[in-house]
Specification:
globular; 252 residues; Rossmann fold; 40% helix; alpha/beta; Sc_DH/Rdtase_CS; 7 helices; 7 strands; seven-stranded parallel sheet
């Protein structure tokens, strides 16, 4: 098969998308590849899903790499970043997407759930950035995926998850100030309700959730990926420290 490759906004760039085998992460990985980047993605368990995304990236004429890594493991996080840079030859874009979503009353979620949530949703992005800074140069991009419930928790049981995603606001703004002189931008994208296998648009609570948006519907992963791709590209070089809500007006 002959693949036609064209120069795009991310041509020659290499990206790492954590949790890129499914849902929003897979959408982001595919969009970055469509825009010209070689893409590495991490997955925790399902190698079949990860391989399917890799196959689609390669069909676009881009290099792809799948890395098994549990974001709760600090060594695995660091090694995923270093392996991406080694095997793709560089690292220009880091997308912190992998997360756990533990829901329940504070009285029901104890130390174990707290530690898991902080480890994956907060510590891992921080450690991934630390590792990436050995590889990112001028024009580097760091983009984290937060959540609309970090700004508006409309149901009970979201305190732990909301707290972890709100922490990314501080991380993003602090890093933007620190890394600006190096030509590296740092931004946060907060998706609203998005149609994935974990949160399907036809799920039991979907109508109520969609009703909290201004547009009355769920997003597609591609809607979130489009904003990430813009922030990863050259035209967003003056955007840093920003929190971008791609939520259909959920937080309006």
């Amino acid at each position: 098969m002959i693949v036609c490759m064209t120069t795009t906004t991310l041509d020659g760039k290499a990206a790492l998308v954590t949790g890129g085998s499914r849902g929003i992460g897979a959408g982001i990985a595919l969009r970055l590849a469509q825009d010209g980047a070689d893409v590495a993605l991490t997955y925790r368990q399902d190698a079949t899903q990860a391989a399917a995304v890799v196959k689609r990236i390669e069909a676009l004429g881009r290099r792809a790499l799948m890395i098994q890594a549990d974001n709760a493991d600090p060594t695995a996080v660091r090694d995923a970043v270093d392996r991406t840079a080694a095997e793709l030859g560089r690292l220009d874009i880091l997308v912190n997407n992998a997360a756990v979503f533990l829901v329940g009353a504070v009285g029901d979620l104890g130390a174990a759930e707290l530690e898991q949530t902080i480890a994956v949703n907060v510590r891992a992005p921080y450690l991934a950035v630390r590792a990436a800074l050995r590889h990112l140069g001028d024009g580097g991009r760091i983009i984290s995926i937060g959540s609309n419930v970090g700004e508006r928790a409309v149901f009970p049981g979201l305190a732990l998850y909301s707290m972890s995603k709100t922490a990314l606001v501080g991380l993003t703004r602090g890093l933007a100030r620190e890394l600006g002189p190096r030509g590296i931008t740092v931004n946060l994208v907060n998706p609203g309700p998005t149609d994935t296998d974990a949160n399907p648009a036809d799920g039991p609570n979907a109508a109520a959730i969609a009703g909290f948006t201004a547009v009355g519907r769920y997003a597609r992963p591609a809607d979130i990926a489009a904003t990430v791709a813009h922030l990863a590209g050259p035209e967003a070089g003056y955007v840093t420290g920003a929190v971008v809500n791609v939520d259909g007006g959920f937080t309006s």
